[in-house]
Amino acid sequence: MAYPFQLGLQDATSPIMEELLHFHDHTLMIVFLISSLVLYIISLMLTTKLTHTSTMDAQEVETVWTILPAIILILIALPSLRILYMMDEINNPSLTVKTMGHQWYWSYEYTDYEDLNFDSYMIPTQELKPGELRLLEVDNRVVLPMEVTIRMLISSEDVLHSWAVPSLGLKTDAIPGRLNQTTLMAMRPGLYYGQCSEICGSNHSFMPIVLELVPLSHFEKWSASML
């Protein structure tokens, strides 16, 4: 999860988020180099009175500064398209969980089990235990197995919501009457926090998401205890 005065993105937990972090660094480096070059040229033009007329009118220079931006855009677009296709790919999920957005809580249903569903409400500040996080803790966490491909089916029963967990690279809109899907796979156990990322009314800030990723054996024991 994020910490105070954090400048970068959250640590990646899924392969998709790792790819997104690499792409972010790749694009940021290109932007940094372009900005440095432009700043250098502007400062040069402001501080010198000399003008090279043959350079200003050279067709070779115009050709270079036309082709070079096109090459840079290709270097940004190709990895971006690759990640987009990876994010949309569904590879034989081992578990399917349906989540529905409500004003202002989430409900979850494990569709592979006969009767495993629950609502997840934010814990009020006055009921928090020591060490729990304000506006992020819920009464029922979503327990999922790690290192397993999981399909999330996301929809809403009232207004637009958005189911987002930054450390897993997930952000999918919950739209009434439409079923969106995304996949997740966590590489290590832990608690992963998210929130509704679509303004959905007066209590929009009070719809946290908590995923508890555990080994498969622990998940099987938990699911057996919930049935």
TrEMBL record:
<keyword id="KW-0460">Magnesium</keyword>
<dbReference type="InterPro" id="IPR002429">
    <property type="entry name" value="CcO_II-like_C"/>
</dbReference>
<dbReference type="GO" id="GO:0016491">
    <property type="term" value="F:oxidoreductase activity"/>
</dbReference>
<comment type="function">
    <text>Component of the cytochrome c oxidase, the last enzyme in the mitochondrial electron transport chain which drives oxidative phosphorylation. The respiratory chain contains 3 multisubunit complexes succinate dehydrogenase (complex II, CII), ubiquinol-cytochrome c oxidoreductase (cytochrome b-c1 complex, complex III, CIII) and cytochrome c oxidase (complex IV, CIV), that cooperate to transfer electrons derived from NADH and succinate to molecular oxygen, creating an electrochemical gradient over the inner membrane that drives transmembrane transport and the ATP synthase.</text>
</comment>
<dbReference type="Pfam" id="PF02790">
    <property type="entry name" value="COX2_TM"/>
</dbReference>
<dbReference type="InterPro" id="IPR001505">
    <property type="entry name" value="Copper_CuA"/>
</dbReference>
<dbReference type="GO" id="GO:0005743">
    <property type="term" value="C:mitochondrial inner membrane"/>
</dbReference>
<comment type="similarity">
    <text>Belongs to the cytochrome c oxidase subunit 2 family.</text>
</comment>
<dbReference type="InterPro" id="IPR036257">
    <property type="entry name" value="Cyt_c_oxidase_su2_TM_sf"/>
</dbReference>
<keyword id="KW-0496">Mitochondrion</keyword>
<keyword id="KW-1133">Transmembrane helix</keyword>
<dbReference type="GO" id="GO:0005507">
    <property type="term" value="F:copper ion binding"/>
</dbReference>
<keyword id="KW-0249">Electron transport</keyword>
<keyword id="KW-0812">Transmembrane</keyword>
<keyword id="KW-0999">Mitochondrion inner membrane</keyword>
<feature type="domain" description="Cytochrome oxidase subunit II copper A binding">
    <location>
        <begin position="92"/>
        <end position="225"/>
    </location>
</feature>
<keyword id="KW-0472">Membrane</keyword>
<dbReference type="GO" id="GO:0004129">
    <property type="term" value="F:cytochrome-c oxidase activity"/>
</dbReference>
<feature type="transmembrane region" description="Helical">
    <location>
        <begin position="27"/>
        <end position="46"/>
    </location>
</feature>
<keyword id="KW-1278">Translocase</keyword>
<keyword id="KW-0479">Metal-binding</keyword>
<dbReference type="Pfam" id="PF00116">
    <property type="entry name" value="COX2"/>
</dbReference>
<feature type="transmembrane region" description="Helical">
    <location>
        <begin position="66"/>
        <end position="85"/>
    </location>
</feature>
<protein>
    <recommendedName>
        <fullName>Cytochrome c oxidase subunit 2</fullName>
    </recommendedName>
</protein>
<dbReference type="GO" id="GO:0042773">
    <property type="term" value="P:ATP synthesis coupled electron transport"/>
</dbReference>
<keyword id="KW-0186">Copper</keyword>
<keyword id="KW-0679">Respiratory chain</keyword>
<dbReference type="InterPro" id="IPR045187">
    <property type="entry name" value="CcO_II"/>
</dbReference>
<dbReference type="InterPro" id="IPR034210">
    <property type="entry name" value="CcO_II_C"/>
</dbReference>
<dbReference type="InterPro" id="IPR011759">
    <property type="entry name" value="Cyt_c_oxidase_su2_TM_dom"/>
</dbReference>
<keyword id="KW-0813">Transport</keyword>
<feature type="domain" description="Cytochrome oxidase subunit II transmembrane region profile">
    <location>
        <begin position="1"/>
        <end position="91"/>
    </location>
</feature>
<dbReference type="InterPro" id="IPR008972">
    <property type="entry name" value="Cupredoxin"/>
</dbReference>
<dbReference type="InterPro" id="IPR014222">
    <property type="entry name" value="Cyt_c_oxidase_su2"/>
</dbReference>
